[in-house]
Amino acid sequence: LVMAKKVKATVVKREKTIESLPVIGSQGVPVFHFDYVDKDGKFAFNPGRSDFKHKEVLQKIIDFSKLTWNEVLSHSTSSRRNSKHHNLSADKLCKDARERLAKISLDDFIDDLFSFALEGELRIIGLKQGNDFYILWYDAHHEVCPSHKK
């Protein structure tokens, strides 16, 4: 029978320093939050969905978090000078989106809705408050606030 020797481990704590992030208005960087993710309904932000593009979503969130809000807003569509990423107009939201906001008791924040265009029709919709972006929905087919071509 062999007895294992007890070894006293020494733990060395390292101090981490984090650079302060810009926090004023459009100069700040997007800070993504998942506190209000809606996991139900037509626009559920639910990784269990068969159409959820995990890698694309995570990579875009990482990419956006390295930009300032000014840089995010400067990304324009190829056909127009409009930003690909923008606030949503309450009067242009689809009926399902308006009803869902009411059901999850966030209809008071309808003016804070913001859309990130990820690829093709894919959008992530959330609430933008200052530099904070609270992810709500996964809009796979650009239906929350559809654009109508002229």
Which short descriptors sum up this protein?
150 residues, alpha+beta, 3 helices, 19% strand, globular
Topology at a glance:
Elements lengths: L30 E3 L20 H11 L4 H5 L12 E2 L7 H9 L9 E7 L2 E8 L2 E8 L11
Parallel strand pairs: 1-5
Antiparallel strand pairs: 2-3, 3-4, 4-5
What does this structure look like?
By secondary structure, the protein is of the alpha+beta class. It is 17% helix and 19% strand. It contains three helices and five strands; from the N terminus they run βααβαβββ. The chain has helices spanning 54-64, 69-73, 95-103, and strands at 31-33, 86-87, 113-119, 122-129, 132-139. Strands 1-5-4-3-2 form a five-stranded mixed beta sheet. β4 (122-129) and β5 (132-139) form a beta hairpin. The longest helix is centred in the middle third of the chain and has 11 residues, at 54-64. The protein is globular, with a radius of gyration of 20 Å.
Distance between the termini: 84 Å
Helix tally equals 3
**Percentage of helical residues?**
10-25%
Structural class: alpha+beta
Query: Tell me about the biggest sheet?
Result: 5 strands, mixed
User: Strand percentage, roughly?
Assistant: 15-25%
Shape: globular
Strand neighbour order, sheet with most strands: 1-5-4-3-2
Integer average pLDDT = 84
Number of strands: 5
Radius of gyration: 20 Å
What is the string of SSEs from the N terminus onward? EHHEHEEE
Low-confidence stretches: 20-24
